[in-house]
Design brief:
The structure is a homodimer. By secondary structure, chain A is of the alpha/beta class. In chain A, α6 packs antiparallel against α14, α9 crosses α11 and α17 packs antiparallel against α19. At the A-B interface, α1, α2, α3, α4 and α5 of A face α1, α2, α3, α4 and α5 of B.
Chain lengths: ~550, ~550
């Protein structure tokens, strides 16, 4: 054997070892592994640096576009990840990080995820997933029953049947919404006469054949941005997503919806789908779903409910009635990585009629053959991991009653926090919680008084000041690293629909206490006294005084 | 406190514990966790049952559509999963399972995945991912450079820039292909004059405005089925995916492609994209990419390369030239969960021009605001896990040279196995390996002789017999559980393009040896002697004898 051949052989054997050996029990990576198993919360607390580093600083550690030629020791990469990645990641599990929809995970999700990854199944077909396919079909069945409450016979006949699909698993709510609207679109333009169906001939010929000038989807202005993305991807165009006005509580206005539908009909635009929201992303409100079901029927439209956030409210006997009408939806989006407390990357869409997905069914020679039970024939994705295993485990280990407790405590905490804000002199509640989300903003007492007396121009001026202050407070609080609320813009009718910057709080983490929430308000109020925002505060005060003095002079 | 309130309080506290405590070190789940860490291969070997259980039997364990009311002990669920799910899953890591594209994982992927899941970041925005966003941008940069080899300045200016995206991460190759073609479609119909762009006005108005009768995508008949799905989702219709004929080696025929393009032009159909394949799913062949680049330029079409399988061939100095021309592609699909050896759920698409994704860029108020570095503004998915961390680790720990060894050994093993089949009396090689995939079928010596002497009708008859036998052997071998090859249908020109059932072998697992492959052939030959296939073998012999006797009589 020549020298270079010997070296190549040695390297190859080293490479094989990577696939066969295990990490030594005392290695850096093993120690991290064990630490996470023993004490997840402690690991996160100890390794994530609280104070936020500027992103451009962080980028310096990830600046090299070269793939190294030579292998690196596992321990070296592990240490790099701990110091540079983990340290500068976001503590999504922290009870004082109430700004996003990612919460703490139940501890058992970690070892179960390890089993899932160790098995490395591919759910596209039974040949690479075997028992995972029946398990995934069962998970879809369990959630289907939670929403649609069909009888036992319905599920016995369909849950494991090759010609039915109670739903489709996706990597998240966006793909679930796209899948639902893809089904709706294809269903609206079926094969007929000389037309072979939109799935084969496309949208252009479909509209020509059926004599339409376009196709539209309607949703309230609080609809998730993924719906706009769906309209683009599906070839309808983003303008085909029609935003309907909402009331003071961010719920779709039936009259505006009906008028828009009639207007579209006059323009010979096909109404593909009406989308109801069960838990708007920004404010957590629920549309009047039963009313929407009626309107959808009236206009022969697919009725989709985006329950990515609010779906699990159905676990709660007390609050499930908020979603009344969801059982009339043709399709429903659920996100498992939100309120089912599963790790990132698990969503799904359910179909009332399990033959509906035939509108998007596809086959290939080597997999997902016709008549197989392969789930890949009715999903947007191809190869997919076995996340259904984690949903299955959550549903069984936490159980309906466990999820009920989680849902109830979140809603009740949101109500208590809303009261706290209402009673606070320096904050204004902008959207009242219906589920476990609320929004508020910084507003000192004289500003609120001035707003109630000001004319529209003055109101805008005050709101513009408050916007800049609220934005500063949110950003600064995040950077300090003790707590995190997110921010968005809403257009409250009480302020002439002027876009107001608000703090957004999502109360899904059961470890968040009222004490923590009180501390968040205290820190925000303290930050309002910092020099960096002083000139803005002075400007606000001037505007407020003008209004109040003019008002006092006039009276 | 009343009794029921006390109970509720106790339950709530139990629920909190699920989010705070760790698994006891001696619990069932902890023991599995440790076992996987210590000996992954042993865990899989011990817990997956070799002999295949009928799917309808497995379904019985997943038949209940009810979510249990009461919580279940974690240990009970863990035991259930071990006995019912893990036992009946597929041993994708086994070196004798060479039928699919899912291989064994390097051991370090498991503890690293645990860190990823523990952190539970959401890559849609920096606010919920922080350092993961620069890391993901770096991973895209590393693979971009592997393909496009731009200079350092190119990456310094663009890799971390909010207005550029070198690519987009996805959950797999299907979404990567859809994303690429979505970009191509939107790019073909930009805003102009009174037209606000297809992304806003949709396909119907785009075609009308630009005066086209339709839009098409061309790919060889070996193109992955996800491209047909993409054509459907994007509103073009599946018939808009035009299948081009291939040569004996499953490579696209340039003349046929050019003729089809000219024909489409005559019909005023816009050619959106030409797709080249770097490693066809069924046979592992590579299209002449440089030729395709020329044709795409000629017809002003987007040039996309689906390198989901073959992309990592670029790591090998010896074999990278097979992909010559890939650097001219406007977009390239890579699958990380294939030959980058990352767990299921990681794909990506790269863009030569990092401004191209602006065609699909979208924003929202509360996240992915304009000017942010949030990666969610240019991805099809919304919330996404931090899989980029695992790709990053693979690229650094295995290194270019490590991946080169893996690629080289796979291709060389495929060549050696092809020789073995060629020399074997009872098998016929159907597609020669170019990368590490090959196909073959069962064909006893007299059958091959008869095929060479038969007329077309007789050839079909013999091939039909061989199809049934090969199908039986594949299915039975899988059920016995010792080895697994997959099967598909190909239309070899030498057999008048008659659809032939073939065994398909993918040699990505470095632990697969020639001895194992030899054993696979031995078992297949032995299975051909089983009673269940005896009548088919007899029928084949009769047909073969007819041909050979007639031939002998004629000579």
């Amino acid at each position: 054997m020549s020298g270079s051949k010997k070296t190549a052989q040695a390297s190859l054997e080293a490479m094989y070892r990577v696939f066969t050996v295990a990490e030594a029990p005392d290695s850096a990576l093993s120690r991290i592994d064990q630490l996470i198993s023993r004490n997840l919360a402690g690991f996160l607390q100890d390794h994530i640096v609280a104070t936020e580093k500027d992103l451009s600083e962080v980028e310096k550690d990830f600046a090299d576009p070269n793939i190294p030629d030579k292998p690196m020791f596992v321990s070296e990469q592990a240490q790099f990840l701990l110091d540079k990645l983990v340290a500068n990641s976001v503590h999504t599990a922290s009870p004082s990080f109430v700004g996003h929809m990612t919460s703490a995970l139940p501890y058992f999700m970690l070892p179960l995820s390890k089993i899932m990854i160790a098995l490395n199944q591919n759910l596209v077909k039974t040949e690479t997933s075997k028992a995972f396919t029946p398990l995934e079909r069962q998970v879809l069945g369990m959630l289907h029953r939670l929403v649609y409450k069909k009888d036992g016979g319905f599920y016995r006949a369909r849950m494991h049947d090759a010609h039915h699909a109670l739903g489709a698993m996706t990597s998240g709510g966006t793909l679930a919404n796209i899948t639902a609207l893809w089904v709706a679109r294809n269903h609206a333009f079926p094969a007929e006469g000389s037309f072979r169906g939109i799935h084969r001939e496309g949208l252009f010929r479909a509209l020509r054949y059926y004599g339409h000038e376009g196709a539209a989807i309607l949703v309230s202005r609080r609809g998730h941005y993924s719906l706009r993305k769906a309209a683009d991807v599906l070839g309808l165009g983003r303008d085909a997503l029609i935003a309907v006005d909402t009331d003071e509580d961010n719920r779709i206005l039936e009259d505006d919806l009906r008028n828009k539908c009639l207007e579209l009909q006059r323009q010979r635009i096909r109404i593909l789908a009406i989308v109801g929201i069960a838990g708007t992303t920004e404010t957590g409100h629920v549309d009047p779903l039963d009313t929407l079901a009626d309107v959808a029927r009236e206009f022969n439209a697919h009725f989709h409910v985006d329950a990515a956030w609010g779906g699990p409210t159905l676990f709660s006997r007390q609050y499930a009635p908020l979603l009344r009408g969801i059982e009339q939806a043709d399709s429903v989006t659920f996100d498992a990585h939100k309120q089912l407390y599963v790790p990132m990357g698990a969503g799904l869409v359910l179909f009332k009629d399990p033959t509906l997905v035939r509108a998007i069914e596809h086959h290939a020679q080597y997999i997902i053959r016709k008549g197989s039970k392969d789930l890949g024939s009715t999903t947007l994705e191809g190869s997919r991991p076995g996340m259904a295993m984690l949903i299955h485990s959550g549903l069984r280990i936490i159980g309906r009653e466990g999820y009920e407790l989680l849902i109830n405590q979140g809603i009740e905490k949101a109500c208590a926090f809303a009261d706290m804000i209402d009673q606070h002199s320096h904050f204004e509640l902008i959207s009242k919680p219906e589920l476990n989300i609320l929004t508020y903003r910084f507003a000192p007492p004289d500003a609120l008084q001035a707003l109630s007396q000001a004319d529209q121009r003055q109101r805008e001026k005050i709101n513009a000041h408050l916007n800049r202050i609220t934005k500063f407070l949110q950003k600064t609080q995040r950077e300090r690293g003790k707590a995190f609320v997110s921010r968005t813009r809403l257009e409250p009718p009480r302020y002439d629909s002027y876009p107001c910057v608000v703090f957004r709080v999502v109360l899904a983490n059961p470890l968040t206490t009222l004490g923590i929430l009180n501390e968040i308000l205290r820190e925000q109020q303290a930050l309002a006294g910092e020099p960096a925002i002083e000139s803005e505060m002075t400007a606000l005060k001037r505007t407020v005084d003008e209004v109040l003095n003019a008002s006092a002079g006039a009276s």
